[in-house]
Amino acid sequence: MKVPILFYIYFLAVNTLMATGTGFIIGIFALRVPFLGFILNPITSPIVFLVICQFFFASFFWGKRRGEFEYSFLEKSTECGKMDSGLKIELKRIKQELKFGGINSAYAKLKDLSNNHPESFVIQFKYAISCERIGLAEDALVAYEKAKNLIIVTSKALIRYIDKQTIRIKQKGPSKRSSAPGLQYVMY
Predict the structure, then answer these.
(1) Neighbours of 166 (CB within 10 A)
(2) pLDDT category, 138, cuts 50, 70, 90?
(3) The pTM is what?
(4) Is the pLDDT of residue 125 over 80?
(5) How many independent structural domains does the chain possess?
(6) Same domain, residue pair 86 and 166
(7) Cis omega (within 30 of 0) on the bond before 118?
């Protein structure tokens, strides 16, 4: 899949700022612990986090986590693309509910959206995530397969990513925490 260079820059900038902020906060808290205050402080912690995270982010661009990066691009494109503004607002609310624990409400809304918009890859994928978080393994597998069939661009990484989700469900069962995208800093 060809991702525009601006999304690479956007992704890197947002995640770098979040990693640096996390390092700064940890540095401030480390000042309160006598032996950590010397090693970690508000000056060195952001730099350490920044350097470590740059290697981590490289795996999103060229490594084994490329599928997550491509999914985040498709999700962002859907939210910013030519879509009904009411649907955009609803997807943003559902994203917040999935992040902050309103999983039952998000599941019900995504079920309705997946029935009303069966052609949307992102909605089907989010529906699969919500099924999984509720514990409905079979429904999640069906939704992941449906999402995989809806991919309109050629992307081996994205297909591999969806296959990993289905294999994980078959081997370990549904995950109760968010499985995708596994980006810990991205809040956009």
Answers:
(1) 17
(2) very high
(3) 0.70
(4) yes
(5) 2
(6) yes
(7) no
